[in-house]
């Protein structure tokens, strides 16, 4: 099995010992307070990449087991399209997610590769490296965080799905940067029977597959206790399984790419 980095990169694995401490900040999910801080874990992957299935399995494990104390792991599985020319076109791949990865790689001064994990926009690592992933998530869970809440609004009749979003006063933000508020839609339980390319013959399973993502506003850097409020429309395609759909809202700085806070809510 060949390394799926493009071009090839050597995986440098470093381990750190963290002293855990109590956190007073609260992350919010579906409007309910939690002592666990939301940590956004992005996985850049592709069904055409032979080394990606173990990383996809790790993301599923992190999301399902939530193994890091004080961290509420919010997964985003982002399928890039750079492997589509290798015999198998990833049905969930998008040039948008490829461009998002390239923006990170430019920041980290890295050349693109898969599988790549980005934790809270601040650290990157080989997506299948579980010890390093747990370490990065643990570190992120003990940083200052901006409170975010999201509450889905049940639509009436054929009305579009909407949600109520609130972002508290910004904490841990960088002076002079712009804090964008992003809304993402993910779907669990997706799978593919791959019959060509590097993963030919495999049944691949996915979690939190990114369906859509866009900026819904900008959080104010000063003012009252709330830096952003909104009631954005959430587009849900009829072919998606609503029972497996999640809405994710996160605040990310435009220059540094640092994620200041996040929340996730399930719709039905």
Distance between the termini: 40 Å
Which percent range fits the helix content? Answer: 10-25%
Structural class: alpha+beta
Name of the level-1 CATH class: Mainly Beta
Q: How are the secondary structure elements laid out?
A:
Layout lengths: L26 E3 L2 E3 L2 E9 L6 H14 L5 E9 L15 H14 L7 E4 L3 E4 L3 H11 L7 E6 L7 E8 L10 E9 L3 E3 L9 E3 L3 E11 L6 E5 L2 E2 L10 E9 L5 E8 L2
Parallel strand pairs: 3-4
Antiparallel strand pairs: 1-2, 3-5, 5-6, 7-8, 8-13, 8-14, 9-12, 9-15, 10-11, 15-16
Task: Identify the notable features of this structure and list them briefly.
268 residues; alpha+beta; Immunoglobulin-like; 3 helices; globular
At a glance:
It contains 3 helices and 16 strands.
Q: Care to describe what's here?
A:
There is one protein chain. By secondary structure, this protein is of the alpha+beta class. The protein has a single domain (27-265), classed as Sandwich (Immunoglobulin-like). The protein has three helices and 16 strands. It has helices spanning 52-65, 95-108, 130-140, and strands at 27-29, 32-34, 37-45, 71-79, 116-119, 123-126, 148-153, 161-168, 179-187, 191-193, 203-205, 209-219, 226-230, 233-234, 245-253, 259-266. A four-stranded mixed β-sheet has the order 4-3-5-6, sandwiched between helices. Strand 7 (148-153) and strand 8 form a beta hairpin. The termini are far apart.
């Amino acid at each position: 099995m060949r390394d799926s980095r493009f071009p090839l990169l050597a995986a440098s694995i470093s381990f750190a010992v963290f002293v855990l401490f109590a956190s007073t900040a609260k992350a919010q999910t579906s409007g309910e307070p939690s002592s666990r801080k939301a940590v956004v874990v992005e996985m850049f992957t592709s069904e055409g990449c032979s080394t990606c299935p173990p990383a996809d399995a790790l993301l599923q494990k992190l999301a399902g087991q939530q193994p890091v104390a004080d961290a509420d792991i919010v997964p985003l599985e982002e399928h890039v399209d750079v492997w589509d020319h290798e015999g198998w076109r990833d049905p969930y791949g998008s040039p948008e997610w490829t461009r998002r990865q390239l923006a990170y790689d430019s920041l980290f001064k890295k050349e693109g590769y898969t599988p790549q994990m980005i934790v809270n926009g601040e650290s990157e690592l080989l997506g299948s490296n579980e010890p390093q992933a747990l370490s990065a998530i643990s570190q992120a869970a003990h940083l200052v965080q901006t409170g975010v809440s999201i509450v889905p609004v049940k639509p009436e009749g054929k009305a579009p799905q909407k949600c109520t979003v609130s972002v508290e006063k910004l904490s841990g933000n960088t002076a002079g940067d712009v804090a964008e508020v992003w809304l993402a839609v993910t779907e669990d339980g997706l799978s593919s029977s791959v019959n060509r390319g590097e993963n030919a013959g495999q049944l691949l399973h996915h979690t939190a597959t990114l369906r859509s993502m866009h900026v819904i506003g900008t959080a104010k850097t000063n003012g009252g206790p709330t830096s952003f409020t909104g009631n954005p429309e959430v587009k849900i395609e009829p072919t998606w399984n609503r029972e497996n759909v999640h809405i994710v809202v996160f605040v990310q700085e435009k220059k540094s790419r640092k994620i200041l806070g996040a929340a996730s809510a399930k719709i039905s």
